[in-house]
Design goal:
By secondary structure, this protein is an alpha/beta fold. The protein has one domain (16-250): Nucleoside phosphorylase domain (Rossmann fold). The chain contains five helices and eleven strands; from the N terminus they run ββββαβββαββαβαβα. The protein has helices at residues 78-87, 150-163, 184-193, 202-211, 240-250; strands at residues 16-20, 31-36, 49-54, 57-63, 92-101, 111-112, 116-120, 167-168, 172-176, 197-199, 215-225. Strands 1, 2, 3, 4, 5, 6, 7, 8, 9, 10 and 11 form an eleven-stranded mixed sheet that branches. Strand 3 (49-54) and strand 4 form a beta hairpin. It is globular. The two termini are 33 Å apart.
């Protein structure tokens, strides 16, 4: 059940929620690692919450697509994921996402600390206020001019610089519904719109986090150029391992 004002998070104790891929499910990442399966008013999250500490900071890990990567982007229960992390006491969310680059200067392997989004999804619930008895009461029109937490973004940028990682300090993420990728005409159009990178998961995740009063920041890794640029190879790996290094150095 709903347990208080959802927009205001007055806690001064930091607890970090980390949403990413299966590469984050490593028992060596967290000290005192435990797992917890939970239910929410919106159903089950993607997988168990994995609790523990990193350098004495409480953290909660969640695999967005499930630990076996079996959940398609359109089928992720974003509302349950955000609700579960909030109810577990998380104050900040650090998330990872692989993405395609829409800009020549954002090369495969680069990191982008995104600060804006464009929403091209069509099938996803984008509010916790759905009018159901178990949901927060009333209505909510959350401001979205600054969807990402700028203070957390600044920390991520500083950590990237300390690591010598090529990092773009801002960027606009365009989220498509999927599961298909863009046509070339769409990819060229997205460039004209001002989008810098493209994925299938940032929306509605960032919207729901904002509604839930959580400080949300994303580490986006470009794995390839989107199809506006022909005959380019993808890079191997993903952002999850780098995220562990980021988090270790943040505290």
């Amino acid at each position: 059940m709903w347990s208080g004002p959802i927009i205001v998070n007055s806690s001064h104790i930091f607890q970090i929620g980390i949403i990413g891929g299966s590469g984050l499910d490593d028992p060596d990442i967290l000290e005192g690692r435990t797992e917890r399966y939970v239910e929410t008013p919106y159903g089950k999250p993607s997988d168990a919450l994995i609790l523990g500490k990193i350098k004495n900071v409480d953290c909660v890990l969640l695999a967005r697509h499930g630990r076996q990567h079996t959940i398609m982007p359109s089928n992720v229960n974003y509302r349950a994921n955000i609700w579960a992390l909030r109810e577990e006491g998380c104050t900040h969310l650090l998330v990872t996402t692989a993405c395609g680059s829409l800009r020549e200067e954002i090369q495969p392997g680069d990191i982008v600390i995104i600060d804006q989004f464009i929403d091209r999804t069509t099938k996803r619930s984008q509010t916790l206020y759905d009018g159901q008895p178990t949901s927060p009461p009333g209505v909510c029109h959350v401001p979205m001019a600054e969807p990402f937490c700028n203070k957390t973004r600044e920390v991520l940028v500083e950590v990237a610089r300390s690591l010598g990682v090529k990092c773009h300090v801002r960027g606009t993420m365009l989220t498509i519904e999927g599961p298909r990728f863009s046509s070339r005409a769409e990819s060229l159009m997205f460039r004209q719109w001002g989008a810098d990178v493209i994925n299938m998961t940032t929306v509605p995740e960032v919207v729901l986090a904002k509604e839930a009063g959580l400080c949300y920041a994303s580490i986006a890794m470009a794995t390839d150029y989107d199809c506006w640029k022909e005959h380019e190879e993808a890079v191997s790996g993903g952002p999850e391992v780098l995220t562990v290094v980021f988090i270790t150095l943040m505290f």
